[in-house]
Task: structure prediction
Amino acid sequence: MACRGCALKTDLAAPVLIVGTGAAGYGLLRALRRLDAQRPVALVTRDDGAAYSRMQLPSGMAEGREARDLVIASAEQMAHRLEAIVRAQTQVLHIDRARAVAITDRGELAYSRLVLATGSETVRPSGIRGKAADRILTVANLAEYRYFRHQLSGRGRVVLLGGSLIACEFADRLVRAGYTVALLEPGSRLLGHQLPALCAGRLTRLLTQGGVRVELESGIQRAELGAEGLELTLRSGAIRTADVVLALGGSQPRTGLARDAELDVRSGIVVDEANRCSDPHIFALGSCTELAGRGRAYAQDIDDACAALARTLMGGTSRAQWRQPLRRLELGGMLFALCAPPPVGGEWHEVATASGVTARFEDHRGDLRGFALLGEPAGRADELYRRLAR
Ligand SMILES: Cc1cc2nc3c(=O)[nH]c(=O)nc-3n(C[C@H](O)[C@H](O)[C@H](O)COP(=O)(O)OP(=O)(O)OC[C@H]3O[C@@H](n4cnc5c(N)ncnc54)[C@H](O)[C@@H]3O)c2cc1C
Result:
């Protein structure tokens, strides 16, 4: 088949090759199999290829579950059930677009279509000095989860760096499981610009009442190995000791392969509504991508994109729209629903009562563009989501 805009001919007998076996990689495989049982599909991943949900990691910690308990299916089981080839422990090093092959540390893999589902990586806090600075952990995949549990085994003091939603979730689950937890946020409120003041303040109070020590405008400047564990010097000069420090400040799309292959990359791999990259034979999915300047890190959005791309790969003309993510979780014993507003001008309007907080973000025309609901008002999340201006 001739390539639009270049002289490449791809081998149609070659499989659709998916790089990555996370929610996006396996999600696309499932969506493809719903449409066609025959089409050759191969997946390649640098990890062990086990299928699991990253959303289960915080609750898994609280429930004391081993990494193996979170596995839904092994790479072999996924390959067998969904009739695909899964090459685990294989890293893609380079994409040779002219020959339509992915070069891995175990040889070359030809593709008819290539799908990058390489995920995102945690941003580690910079500028922390000291001999124990490299002991700061991240928990963004199963291998890291396994290591985190191992490090915490028989110990109890955890410091979390960054006041992201995932950090709040980890703090809540860990404290409920009996750990001593401090959460250090460099800014003046949890979740930064995603939350207005009243709502952020109530969230801080809830976590604090639950036993989390929340410290705003705080962070670590030095980490050393002391007699009683990790000795942390905070920005204020105060000293804390901890057994484990976890960085949860945020993540960024993993774009190295795409960049090296000279595909269009900004903060994520740039795709159009058909999930196509700047090379017509290459597509991208999941948290490594950006569509119209917006990241796509949430399950809801990834599921839509998988279904749409499966139809495109089968010859259809399906388009995935960017959907504003709605996150729901329980924090400090209260329901919390967050639909963060897009980067448009406007302002938050908040009402706080004893039963919770309703925060609505309206643009300059008065249209609803996002919301945060804590406590009883969280029951209205679906209604507000339907009323969002798009
Ligand atoms: C703790 C935590 C809690 C979360 N909670 C929620 C939630 O409640 N709701 C929600 O919507 N989202 C949540 N998320 C976000 C969501 O889970 C992720 O955005 C989603 O899992 C991303 O899936 P992905 O397939 O894009 O990437 P990943 O799952 O990261 O998969 C990336 C894959 O690419 C492979 N890979 C990367 N580079 C290479 C290479 N060069 N060669 C071979 N293989 C490669 C990796 O091995 C891996 O298999 C959470 C995330 C975390 C970390």
